[in-house]
Each structure stands twice: as C-alpha cells, then as structure tokens.
C-alpha cells in the first residue's frame, strides 16, 4: 500500500522524538503513519524520567488491528524497551516477511540513548537486538555512537565507517545509513554514509550549529521510511531525509528549558538544505580519501545557455530528422545515435552540427563527446555514467555546453556538483523508447525538481506526448524533450506546432 507506513516506537511525552516525530516526518512527505506504541516515556527537554514498556499483548493487539486492515510497504522500528519486546517484534517481522504477499521493508533506527544522554531501554537489550532483530531489518539508520555499540567498530575515519557497514551486513542488515551528526570529521562538517546493493553514498554539509536537535534520529529514519513507501529509490530517500533534517535543524526552536525538538517544516524546498553528494574529486572527497575513477578528468561551471527555456527539444537518431525538425522551426535538438558500429557516424555528426549552425539552433550530440568537440557542436548531452569517464575539462575548455541526465534527487545533486549548462530529468512517464525500469519519476518529483534547480534550464523527458505536455508545462519546466511524440506522429510538423504552443 503506497503512502502509508507503520511506526513501531515509543511515545515521547515531550513531543519531540519517538512516535510523535515519526508521524510528523511522514506527514511532511505526504505519507500517513500508523503507530504501534512500545513504551510510554516520561521525558521532557531535559531528560528521560521514566520508561513504561507496553505489555506484549498490548503491542500485539495494536499490530493485529493494523494487520487486518492495512499492510504497509514499509515498517519503521524505533525504541524497543526490553528483551521481550525485541524478540516479539523480531518474530512478528519474520512472520510478515514470510506470509505477506508483499514482504514489508523494515527500517530500524536503533534508539538506545536519547539526545539528553539518558538510556532509553530498561535493560541491556543489545544481544537480543543482534541475534533476533537485525536479521529481520532491511535498512538500519544508526548514529556514530549506536554504530560503535552495535558493531564494535570505533569510527576513527572513513574506512572504519565502511568497515562498520560491512559489520552490519554480517549481522544480517543489507542496507546501512550511518548518520555522522556527532562525528565532526572533517571538523565542522556533518558526513553521512550509505551502503546499499554494492553502491556507496557519501553525503556532507557544514554542521548546523543548534542545540535543538531532539528527535533528529527518529525523524531521519521516518523520512527514509516514508520516501521508500513512495517507491523512491534508497539513495533519493537518503537525500530527502538528510535535507529534511538540515531544514528542521535550521528552524528548530526551544520549547522548554533544555534541548528543543527538530522542526518539522514539510518537504525541503530550499536547495541550501540539501547535502553535497561527495565525489572523489571534491574537497570533501579528498578529505575523506575517496577513490577517484581512473578515467575521470573533472571540471565544473560549463558554458551557459542564453535562455532557461529551451522549448520543445526533439531527440532524434538521423540527420534527416534533424533537418526536418529544424525546418519546422525547432531551436533545440539532439542527435542520439545508439548504433556505435555506424560506419558513417562521424559524417552524420558533422552534418548535424553544420545543420544546427545553418538554422541557428542549439544542437546537442549525445554520447560522442570527442566527435562533438572535433566538429564544434553547440552542446553535448551526457548520462550519469558518462560523466564519470568523459574528459569534462576538455569539454569545458572547448566552450561547449553540457547537458546532463538525472533520474531522481541523488543524481540531481551529483550533476549539480559539475554546474552543467542544463539538467534533464526523467523519465517522467513510462516510455517504450528506452528501458527506464525503476526510474520513472512522475510529476510530483518534477514539481519539486524545477524550483530546486531554478538556476538551470531544466528539461523534462520520457513518455511525454501532446496529452501530457500541458501538465508537464504547468510545473514551470522550460523545456520538454521528446522522441516518439514527434517521430511517431502522423504529421510531425503539426505535432511540433502543437507541442510548442503548450510550452508558450
Ligand atoms: C534531453 C535528454 N535527456 C536525457 C537523455 C538520456 O541521456 P543518457 O542518460 O545519456 O541516455 P541515452 O540517451 O544515451 O540512452 C537524453 N538523451 N536527452
Ligand atoms: C532517451 C531517453 N532518456 C530518458 C531519461 O529519462 O533519461 S527517457 C528517454 C526516452 C524518451 O523517449 P519518448 O519521448 O519516446 O518517451
Ligand atoms: Mg547518453
């Protein structure tokens, strides 16, 4: 079931953490949270005064009531008060995973210590967590202290963080998001680390200086859970959770005499709240000693395009189509030849570039950046994999514009590192032109993307036709790239006129 999670966690009387934070964070991302309460904590902004663990049969009745009605895609686990609860929840999760038609994804925030420093468990439950619970967990979101307690790995540097993630894998957790809020490495920065399906993600930003951080752990994990429930990929859920916490810390205020709660301010719309995706060639990447791809020659700040509105942007595979579209008045166009064995490839690229100049149009060459430079193209379009291997410095030096494909928030921030000339975002809808399985963004993401990336010309691509062009244009995007809407139209010239009229 989409847009719904369960949170199994403790109640915080102070309203800043636990169930209360979970519900607010999920709500901020438009996700409904059902709550199963494991403990009633008597706490306020100064500390935890009492923990009252809920009886197993009471937890069970809450779970039963929910199970009969709504089975979520994602279950977030927070505070568990005692060993009995850990074992019961672990067994229950095991049953869900083996009997539900769609096994739930379990996100676990190993709450052991409140931000006040007080313990949140009635006894030592670590052995039970390791033996019973972790093998049922899909995503764990520990802070540095929790990481050290659970794995025994002391986080003295980036490679120790990677070792700790591997230790979690060995304990049965496939995906690990380690929050570096208390790490202070490099000094004054907050670095988070993610390991998921063989990929690694390092996110970083300057530490936000506020004492009011109560509930950040719960809110982070619930943000991850909520965005996973929306079918966002893990790396995008990670980005959004981090941006959400940064936004919340910037707006956090005191509500008592001690540590105030992180604020809950809805979807993070300010790009300044987003972390940097740390790449090996950046300052933070070097501080963390990240390994650089051997072929990558990096550069940033590519030649600007004179307008943010590139208009209807046909992506076509032949010189004939280039000429036909240019004759019909198209001003931005791409040659995308996917047959690399094409004997006439260079000639086609050269002819397309000449045509672009003749019609005073912005002609981009897809993939073949060396040939594009050689023949003086207006621009080059590269995918995320290409920017890891292309010689970006050469493209920049040639003064050629660079467009970059992005599919989601992580790739958006990765492309943003290079300050390209435009950003493409897709696939907005399913398409038959290219296999985009698992990469369909939908309109909601585009609506967030356009204002976040307002400094760039933004191009929407994927499955867009005349019927859908209007709702796409309403997001404020300045350009719509299409293949079939033109190449498979009964009357391509008429299709161009109609599509152009939607964007105007
Ligand atoms: C405008 C625009 N956006 C995205 C793409 C896709 O580029 P890429 O990721 O390099 O994939 P291929 O097109 O090479 O399959 C594009 N071509 N144009
Ligand atoms: C080539 C391409 N790139 C995409 C991306 O999202 O990166 S979607 C896509 C195919 C666009 O074709 P159509 O307009 O026929 O759906
Ligand atoms: Mg490409």
From TrEMBL:
It holds the Pfam family Phos_pyr_kin. Residues 317-486 form the Thiamine phosphate synthase/TenI domain. GO terms for molecular function: ATP binding; hydroxymethylpyrimidine kinase activity; magnesium ion binding; phosphomethylpyrimidine kinase activity; thiamine-phosphate diphosphorylase activity. Mg(2+) binds at residues 367, 386. 4-amino-2-methyl-5-(diphosphooxymethyl)pyrimidine binds at residues 334-338, 366, 405, 434. 2-[(2R,5Z)-2-carboxy-4-methylthiazol-5(2H)-ylidene]ethyl phosphate binds at residues 431-433, 463. Residues 12-262 form the Pyridoxamine kinase/Phosphomethylpyrimidine kinase domain. Its EC number is 2.5.1.3. Keywords: ATP-binding, Kinase, Magnesium, Metal-binding, Multifunctional enzyme, Nucleotide-binding, Thiamine biosynthesis, Transferase. PANTHER family: HYDROXYMETHYLPYRIMIDINE_PHOSPHOMETHYLPYRIMIDINE KINASE THI20-RELATED, PHOSPHOMETHYLPYRIMIDINE KINASE. Condenses 4-methyl-5-(beta-hydroxyethyl)thiazole monophosphate (THZ-P) and 2-methyl-4-amino-5-hydroxymethyl pyrimidine pyrophosphate (HMP-PP) to form thiamine monophosphate (TMP). This is Thiamine-phosphate synthase. It comes from Pseudoalteromonas piratica.
């Amino acid at each position: 079931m989409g847009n719904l999670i369960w949170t199994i966690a403790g109640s915080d009387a102070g309203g800043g953490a636990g169930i209360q934070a979970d519900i607010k964070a999920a709500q901020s991302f438009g996700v409904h949270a059902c709550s199963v309460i494991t403990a009633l904590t008597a706490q306020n902004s100064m500390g935890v005064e009492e923990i009252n663990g809920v009886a197993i049969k009471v937890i069970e009745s809450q779970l039963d009531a929910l199970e009969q009605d709504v089975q979520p895609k994602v279950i977030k686990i927070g505070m568990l008060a005692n060993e009995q609860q850990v074992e019961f929840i672990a067994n229950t999760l095991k049953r869900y995973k083996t009997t539900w038609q769609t096994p739930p994804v379990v996100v676990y925030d190993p709450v052991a210590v409140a931000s006040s420093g007080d313990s949140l468990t009635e006894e030592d439950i670590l052995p039970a967590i390791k033996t019973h619970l972790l093998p049922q967990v899909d995503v764990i979101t520990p802070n540095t202290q929790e990481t050290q307690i659970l794995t025994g790995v002391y986080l003295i540097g980036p490679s120790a963080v990677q070792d700790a993630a591997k230790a979690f894998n060995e304990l049965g957790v496939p995906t690990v998001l380690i929050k570096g809020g208390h790490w202070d490495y490099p000094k004054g920065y907050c670095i988070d680390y993610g390991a998921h399906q063989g990929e690694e993600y390092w996110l970083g930003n300057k530490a936000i200086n506020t004492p009011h951080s109560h509930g950040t752990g719960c809110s982070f994990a619930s943000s991850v859970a909520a965005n996973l429930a929306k079918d966002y990929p893990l790396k995008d859920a990670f980005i959004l959770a981090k941006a959400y916490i940064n936004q919340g810390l910037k707006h956090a205020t005191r509500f008592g005499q001690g540590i105030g709660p992180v604020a809950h301010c809805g979807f993070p719309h300010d790009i300044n709240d987003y972390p940097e995706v740390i790449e090996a060639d950046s300052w933070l990447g070097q501080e963390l000693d990240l390994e650089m791809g051997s072929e990558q020659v990096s550069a940033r700040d590519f030649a600007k395009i004179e307008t943010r509105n590139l208009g209807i942007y046909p992506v076509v595979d032949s010189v004939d189509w280039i000429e036909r579209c240019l004759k019909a008045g198209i001003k931005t166009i791409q040659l995308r030849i996917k047959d690399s064995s094409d004997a006439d490839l260079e000639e086609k690229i050269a002819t397309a570039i000449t045509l672009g100049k003749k019609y005073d149009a912005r002609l981009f060459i897809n993939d073949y950046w060396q040939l594009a430079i050689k023949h003086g193209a207006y621009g080059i379009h590269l995918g995320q994999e290409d920017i890891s291997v292309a010689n970006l410095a050469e493209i920049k030096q040639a003064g050629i514009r660079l467009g970059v494909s992005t599919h989601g928030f992580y790739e958006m921030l990765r492309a943003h590192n290079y300050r390209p000339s435009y950003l493409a975002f897709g696939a907005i809808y399913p398409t038959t032109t290219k296999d985009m399985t698992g990469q369909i963004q939908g309109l909601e993401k585009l609506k967030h993307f356009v204002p976040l990336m307002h400094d760039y010309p933004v191009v929407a691509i994927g499955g867009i036709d005349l019927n859908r062009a209007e709702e796409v244009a309403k997001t404020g995007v300045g350009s719509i790239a299409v293949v079939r809407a033109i190449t498979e139209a009964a009357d391509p010239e008429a299709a161009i006129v109609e599509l152009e009229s939607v964007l105007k």
